[in-house]
Design goal:
Length: 213
């Protein structure tokens, strides 16, 4: 399944094949290829950091991290990250995965848009966020070689308009439940006391990333 890059592959098991097929059948091409790239960035980051990683758990975390943006798994009241976490949980339970491992995957997905926390947690949790940050924001872009980036993008294309398309995909997945966007209250507090304060803007960072397109 997939490619072999620096010895990193998608684990060859029925659960992995079923996960790939499920995500392929459920997500758009944009999200499927994004999630697939996230796995390779995450696994390569783990290799570079010399972390001990369960690659099956990492793969599920990466592949399901945006499932909450799909019609099939989108709730009316929960954050899309939580919807994706529950989708992964339901999937893993079918294969008798230990609850402590399910909890790792659940947490990895639930926290993947909450920077500053996952990096201090279990490797699988930290690396899902690292993979997402690389593919969407270009964080640590320079730590991957040209060859690595070319190999991954050749297998899982990153469209020329990816930045705008992924922003649109996020919007489409959350526009009907704006209350779920409430989260990092610290920026609100500073803004309240310092009216001139301008918090970082997620979309601006995406557009300014080193990735083309």
């Amino acid at each position: 399944m997939g490619l072999n890059i620096n010895g990193i592959t998608i684990p060859d098991s029925q659960m992995m094949r079923d996960a790939t097929q499920l995500v392929r059948d459920t997500e758009s091409n944009l999200l499927f290829h994004h999630s697939s790239r996230v796995y390779y960035w995450a696994a390569l980051a783990g290799q570079r950091r010399e972390l001990k990683v369960d690659h099956e758990l990492l793969y599920i975390g990466c592949m399901f991290h945006d499932m909450g943006l799909t019609h099939e798994h989108c709730s009316c009241d929960k954050r899309f990250e939580v919807d994706g976490a529950f989708a992964a949980q339901d999937f893993l339970r079918q294969y008798g995965v230990k609850q402590e491992d399910i909890d790792k995957v659940w947490t990895a997905i639930a926290l993947h848009t909450t920077p500053g926390i996952p990096e201090f947690m279990a490797a699988e949790i930290a690396l899902v966020t690292a993979g997402v940050e690389m593919d969407v924001l270009g964080i640590d872009y320079e730590k991957f070689t040209d060859e690595q980036r070319e190999q991954v993008v050749k297998l899982h294309p990153r469209p020329a308009a990816f930045k705008e398309e992924i922003i649109q995909a996020f919007y489409d997945g959350i526009k009907n439940k704006p209350a779920t966007t409430f989260g990092n209250v610290k920026a609100d507090v500073i803004k309240d006391k310092e009216p001139a304060f301008e918090p970082l803007n997620f979309c601006s960072i995406i557009r300014a990333s080193r990735w083309a397109g």
